[in-house]
Amino acid sequence: MNALHTNFKALKEMSILKPGHSASEELRKGFVRKIYTIALILIAFLVPLNQAHAYSSELDEIISAAGLNPLSSEDREMITREIHQTALAMGNSYDEELHRIATESRNAMTAKQKDSARPPRGFFDKNIPAGKAERVGDIFYSSNSTIGIPHGHTAIYVSHYTYVEATTPHVRLVHGYKAEAPKPVYKYYVGWSWQSPNKYKAANFAKTKIGKSYNYFFWNNKTVHANSYNCSQLVWAAYKSTDPNVDLDSDGGPGVYPTDIKDSRWIHLYETRW
Q1: Three-state SS for 37?
Q2: How far apart are CA 87 and CA 75, in angstroms?
Q3: How many angstroms separate the most distant Cα atoms in the chain?
Q4: How far is Cα 142 from Cα 235, in angstroms, rounded to an integer?
Q5: Under a CB-based contact definition with an 8 Å cutoff, are residues 164 and 206 in contact?
Q6: pLDDT for 120-178, tens place per residue?
Q7: Do 48 and 74 form a contact (C-beta atoms < 8 A)?
Q8: What values do phi and psi take at 155, rounded to 5?
Q9: Which of 180, 150, 151 is nearest to 163 (CA)?
Q10: What top-level class would CATH report for the domain 127-273?
Q11: Domain definitions of the chain by residue range
């Protein structure tokens, strides 16, 4: 932008822009107006997309919720570009979609646990292993946060002792006693019966996604067969793939959050691990 102003100043100092030149005064003024208009157009196109929204606190919230750095111009541009695309698909303006995503994300992050049991002694030892599941296809929920932003986390067991989770940088297989999650850890079975055959199908689906990259665009993640997943998307997609009627998203909308799954009518709590 400074360079454009410098060039414009230089043009003013050139003889072609000075009174008394062989060109008429009207032509000189018309030329100046054209140059100034072109300069404004160039400035508009040269301002990076992320700078256009540099002072948006809601954009900062969304970037942080995605586990990215609000101070990174690359992260800001990536998230802003995706919000523009989502807004176009939803028929909203950028500002409307930005506010919708930030509000939905904020509500999901501040949602309280249904379980009101009082924590026992030792509760404030922050992390514990998720441990063992009673059956294949069970899921767990924990109150994870990224750089201080609470968002929750969910994963699906593919055996009694191992689960698959989508985390950065990719979907991975984890042993229930070799990784820790913030306590409490809530464990659920899915379906009207703990004997549902969909559990094995869902677990097998999740295993086929190991190694897939992480999906940062959490507000528009309800794609079953995708190239990237975040945690709630993976669990949701695993069961959705078994039966289109099994929708673990409790509140609808284009995004499924960990708290949406925790509040789903399809899941049933059987253990709270402190």
Answers
A1: helix
A2: 18
A3: 93
A4: 14
A5: yes
A6: 545 455 799 999 999 999 999 998 665 555 668 999 999 999 999 999 999 999 999 99
A7: no
A8: -150, 165
A9: 180
A10: alpha beta
A11: 2-46, 55-110, 127-273
